Amino acid sequence: MTGDDDRRSYASPPCFLHELSAEEGGVPGAVDAVQARDVARWRKAERARLLAERAALSVSERKAAAETVARHLDGLLGDICGKAISAWWPIQSELDLRFWLASLDARGASAALPLVTEKHAPLRFRIWTADAKMERGFWNIPVPAAGDWVTPDIALAPLVGFDAAGYRLGYGGGYFDRTLAANPGIHAIGIGLSAARLETIFPQAHDIRMRAIVTENGIA
Ligand SMILES: Nc1nc2c(c(=O)[nH]1)N(C=O)[C@@H](CNc1ccc(C(=O)N[C@@H](CCC(=O)O)C(=O)O)cc1)CN2
Ligand SMILES: Nc1ncnc2c1ncn2[C@@H]1O[C@H](COP(=O)(O)OP(=O)(O)OP(=O)(O)O)[C@@H](O)[C@H]1O
């Protein structure tokens, strides 16, 4: 099923105004602006729903999902020797892949974590090891207090939601999209629960597709 099909069949589309042309009295650009606002509202509601659903899972369900995801990820990535790979320090019931990240060193790869060093700017990444000294960063997310900056070859992106075309829904800051726009060489892989799948997130011009999505059910 394509995104366009979904848009036609969706019970309550975010916006009908795309059917009005400028010649019909609209202000050029205004329809796009209204549509973007409606999509942002819809995403906010979907985020809240998906986050509540995820938080309702037990710790052992999330742990089992993280272990299965890690196995699928190893199968997808193959030989990672020499690669820098970033993931995340879990917050808000995100899957905890720190055990997998900590295993990279022994496999000849380096692990990294993202930092917001400036609001509304691309993320930056610092090498992380299991014994790294951490400090509270933006949004109180723990980040390495010191260490080399690196541009990851592969960035694992935690998903609040994802869609059939591989677009990601995050917390709404736009940080991952900005990061991928500024670093097109980064291979981004979305990681989340299969229950976070949506038919479409109504991709906007700034949204950048993940190269792959991995859930506990495999490669989505
Ligand atoms: N564990 C973890 N670390 C991560 C990320 C992540 O998704 N998970 N990020 C992945 O990118 C970056 C941080 N992303 C963030 C994105 C948005 C907001 C935030 O302030 N959201 C506002 C709403 C913003 C808006 O709607 O304009 C909020 O919820 O109040 C915070 C952090 C880097 N580190
Ligand atoms: N490359 C970019 N340049 C400037 N603004 C951007 C860019 N990418 C996204 N944004 C802005 O960020 C805002 C949030 O985007 P979106 O809803 O896609 O966030 P998200 O992917 O859920 O968040 P995050 O990646 O932080 O978890 C949008 O209003 C968008 O305009």
Automatic annotation (TrEMBL):
Keywords of this entry: ATP-binding, Ligase, Magnesium, Metal-binding, Nucleotide-binding
Molecular function via GO: 5-formyltetrahydrofolate cyclo-ligase activity
Cofactor: Mg(2+)
Catalytic activity: (6S)-5-formyl-5,6,7,8-tetrahydrofolate + ATP = (6R)-5,10-methenyltetrahydrofolate + ADP + phosphate
SUPFAM superfamilies per UniProt: NagB/RpiA/CoA transferase-like (SSF100950)
UniProt-listed Enzyme Commission number(s): 6.3.3.2
Gene3D superfamilies: NagB/RpiA/CoA transferase-like
InterPro entries per record: FTHF_cligase (IPR002698), FTHF_cligase-like_sf (IPR024185), NagB/RpiA_transferase-like (IPR037171)
Alphabetized Pfam families for the sequence: 5-FTHF_cyc-lig
Family to which this protein belongs: Belongs to the 5-formyltetrahydrofolate cyclo-ligase family.
Protein name as it appears in the record: 5-formyltetrahydrofolate cyclo-ligase
